Amino acid sequence: MSTAARLQSEGLRTVVLERHDHVGGCAGYYRRDGFAFDVGATTLVDFQPRGVGGQLLDEIGFDPPDIDVQDAYEVRLPDRTVTLYRDRRRWNRELRETFGDDAAHRAFYRFLERTSDALWEIARGDVKLPMQSVGDVVRNARTLGLGNLSLLRYLRWTMADALNHFGVYDDVALRKTVAALVEDTVHATLEEAPLLNSILGISIRKAGIGRAEGGMYGFWTAFVDHYADIGGTLETGATVTEVTGRRGAFRIDTDSGRYRAEQVVSALPVDLTRRIAPSVVGDRLDEHVETLREHEGGAVVAFLGVPEEEVAGREFTHHQILRDYDEPLGNGNNMFVSVSAPGDTVSAPEGHRAVILSTHCDVDPWQDLDDEAYERKREAAGERLVSGARTVYPDLGSNPVVYEVGTPVTYEQFTNRPRGAIGGYRQTPANTNQRAVPQDVGVDGFYLAGDTTWPGLGTVACLVGSRIAAEHVTGRR
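RE: above sequence
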C-alpha cells in the first residue's frame, strides 16, 4: 500500500490487488464483537516528522488518525522491571540504575547510544542494500558520510560479539533483556542477530512507538480512503494466480479477472512471488527462497476484548515480558503486550479495551497436527500467554467479551503465507544487508517489496523497502 500510494501521488496510475477482504497483511487487523485487533504489528514506529513513517505521510499528503506515541514502555524481567524511556537522559539513568554502572557497562551504553543515533539517521536517508551498482555505492557513501564510515567494521558482528567485546555478556539481566528485544525485532538469537540491525531494533523507543486511534484498523481505514482520494484503485478479494509477460506488457491473472500493467511490484513473500511468476523471475529467487525456509519463524497471538477494569490503573499500555532467564525465548517466555488506549472507542466499545498478547514460535511444531492435537496445543499456548500477561494485569481474562488465539495455522489460513511463516527472515549476517533480497532482482519492470526483502521486518523496514521499490518504478534508481 505504501509503494502504491507513493507512486499514485507522483502521478502514476496504480492498482493494488489484495487477496484478503481488507489490506494490512502482517500489519493488519480483524474485528470481532465491536473490538478491533491488530493481527501482527501492533505499533507504528518512527511516524514522527522527518521519521521514516513521517516521510511517507508527507510524500503522499496523508493526515492519519491520531497516533499516540509512547513516552516509554516496560520490560518485565523475572527479578526487576526496566522502563524503556524515549527521553535520552531518563533512559541513560534507567540503564545505570537497573543494570551495571561500572566502566564496561557505561562504555557499552555509550556505544549503543551513538550507534543507534547514526543508524536512525541513515535509515531516514537514502541508504540501499544490497549494493548492485556503482551508483548504489556512491549513494550509500553520501548517506553514511565520513563520520559514520567506521560502522562498516561491524557489518559482520553479531549482538553477542558486541556484548563480549565490551565485557558485559555475563550480566544475565542485561543480556537477557537485549535478547528479548532482539528476538522481538530481528527474530534471531544474540549469537545470530546482525549487530547493526539489532541496535536499530532494540532502540525503537527513541524513534517513537505509536498506536493509531483504532489501532491498525483505524490507520488502514483512513489510509485506504486517502489512497482512493488520490486516484488509486484497490481490489480486495483478488487472489493473483499468475503473472506473465514483460515490461510494458505484463498480464496479471486473478481468480476474478485479468489485469494488464506496464510494471509490477510484488509485495508477497519471495516464495509466493516465485510461485505465481515463474516465467518472469526464472531462478533469480531460488537461493533466497531456500534461505527463507531455513530461517522462517512464526507467532502465536492471543486476542482479548475485556472490561476496562481488567487493565485499568497502569501508566503504560505496552509491555515486554520475560518470565524466566533460563528458558528459551519465544513460546510465551518472551512476549509483547499491547493494550488499546483509554477512551479509544474505535478499538473497543465504551468501557472496554482491546488487548493483544504475542510471542514468537517455530512453525514446525504446528504442522500436520490432527484437529484434537491442534486444539490442545492452541489452548495451551493461549493460556500461557494470558498467564504471562497477568504479571502486569492480574485480572486479565477474568471475564472476557472476546478471547481468541491465532497460530501459524491461522496465519496460513488467512494470509496464504506458506506454513504460516510471518515476519520475514530470522536475520543473520548471512541473509541480511549485502546478502539480503533486493527490490530489483534483474527483471526490467518487475520489482519486490515487503518483509522478505531488504531491510526486512517491521513497519520501518517495509516503508524503506517501499521507497526503494517506488524509485525503481519511476527510474530514479
